[in-house]
């Protein structure tokens, strides 16, 4: 059982607003209280006290779309998965959905079994299948030979293999079987995400009406916004039922595209994701993304064959810092995009996603420059706190 902790003097981002000189009291694995004041409040006498004046306290980050990190991948062994999870945890991601990439159905169902065990152990929040039901026209870093149409029976196979831990499936909804697959996913409480798609505006509207609620990395791997053919981007941005994923690494999106999405969808409908691959939190070099070879140069991952961008090397603490210091977004909007919105999408907002009494003690400590100085997960320090 983690010791009780009191963190005082911080700028605390609460659902109700930013509190200066705020306090968070942690009892075991949960948040016991939040508010103002420098004392120890209702904390037990033996609580550890931390003066974190001059720092921000924000909720732990929630990543909906992540393929790996620390040189390891969610397509690998249980040890690989844990390496990647711990790498991202050290960067503030206290909740993470493990994403697969297109592969043989046999490989995917086997991997789903392995990932579902790690979900049962509480290491990951579930599984996101990106592919194989995607468009060959927008395949990005997925093997063309392994792509297939979204047959609901095959989608069902993946859900069964994940034993209740499938959280999201990215699919090209315009392909044969696409809309039926969306309906199947919605019936099972699994997020149907429109992505790696060549759909028209009208086809995308149909997919949303059928139950799709997420745009997989909006702008990337889909037709551009055209004035006569607005395509998926317009449909996904305008519909209140849809949350749009954005990769805020300065590579996948122009700053103006990010601002356009934020402006149009509003902060409550944006989720920042990493779409990270193995090199995140690691370094440049040669890696694998599923079955494909990737070369990482200056932190940018590209397929060795074809030169397509192949995931990112982003961590969510960097996405946070960039959103505030480069994009100029309000801190509270960034917290929504990194924590509250993805937590709500996953149906976990009763436990995580904001700093509120009764929720898991998942906190990120940032200095005035928004550099990560500490990560508390379920009441235990995973990083730091590095104060002073
Ligand atoms: Zn991805």
Automatic annotation (TrEMBL):
One protein family per Pfam: Amidohydro_1
Membrane-spanning intervals of the chain: none
Record keywords, A-Z: Carbohydrate metabolism, Hydrolase, Metal-binding
SUPFAM superfamilies for the chain: Composite domain of metallo-dependent hydrolases, Metallo-dependent hydrolases
Domain of life (superkingdom): Bacteria
Domain Amidohydrolase-related: from-to ranges: 57-382
CDD domains documented for this protein: NagA
Sequence similarity: Belongs to the metallo-dependent hydrolases superfamily. NagA family.
NCBIfam families recorded: nagA
Protein name per UniProt: N-acetylglucosamine-6-phosphate deacetylase
């Amino acid at each position: 059982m983690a010791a009780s902790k009191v963190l005082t003097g911080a700028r605390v981002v609460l659902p109700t607003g930013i509190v200066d000189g705020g306090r968070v009291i942690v009892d075991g694995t949960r948040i016991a209280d939040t508010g103002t004041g420098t004392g120890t409040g209702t904390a037990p006498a033996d609580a550890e006290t931390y003066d974190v004046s001059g720092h921000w306290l924000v909720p732990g980050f929630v990543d909906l779309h992540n393929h790996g990190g620390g040189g390891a991948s969610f397509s690998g062994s249980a040890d690989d998965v844990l390496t990647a999870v711990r790498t991202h945890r050290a960067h503030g991601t206290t909740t993470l959905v493990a994403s697969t990439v297109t592969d043989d159905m046999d490989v995917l169902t086997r991997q789903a079994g392995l990932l579902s065990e790690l979900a049962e152990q509480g290491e990951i929040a579930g599984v996101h299948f990106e592919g194989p039901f995607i468009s060959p026209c927008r395949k990005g870093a997925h093997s063309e030979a392994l792509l297939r149409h979204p047959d609901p029976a095959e989608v069902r196979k993946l859900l069964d293999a994940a034993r209740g831990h499938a959280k999201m499936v990215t699919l090209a909804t315009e392909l044969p079987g696409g809309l039926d697959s969306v309906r199947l996913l919605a019936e099972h409480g699994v997020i149907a995400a429109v992505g790696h798609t060549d759909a028209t505006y009208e086809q995308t509207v149909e997919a949303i009406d059928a139950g799709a609620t997420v745009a997989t990395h909006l702008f990337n791997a889909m037709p551009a916004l055209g004035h006569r053919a607005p395509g998926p981007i317009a449909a996904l941005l305008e519909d209140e039922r849809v949350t749009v994923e954005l990769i805020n690494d300065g590579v996948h999106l122009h700053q103006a595209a990010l601002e356009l999405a934020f402006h149009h969808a509003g902060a409550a409908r944006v989720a920042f994701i990493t779409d990270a691959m193995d090199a995140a939190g690691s370094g440049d070099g040669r890696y694998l993304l599923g079955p494909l070879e990737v070369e990482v140069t200056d932190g940018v991952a590209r397929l060795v064959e074809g030169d397509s961008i192949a995931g990112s090397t982003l961590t969510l603490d960097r996405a946070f810092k960039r959103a505030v210091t480069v994009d100029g977004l309000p801190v509270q909007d960034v917290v929504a995009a990194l924590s509250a919105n993805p937590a709500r999408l996953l149906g976990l907002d009763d436990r995580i996603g904001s700093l509120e009494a009764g929720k898991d003690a998942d906190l990120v400590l940032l200095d005035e420059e928004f550099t990560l100085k500490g990560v508390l997960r379920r009441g235990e320090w995973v990083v730091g706190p590095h104060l002073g």
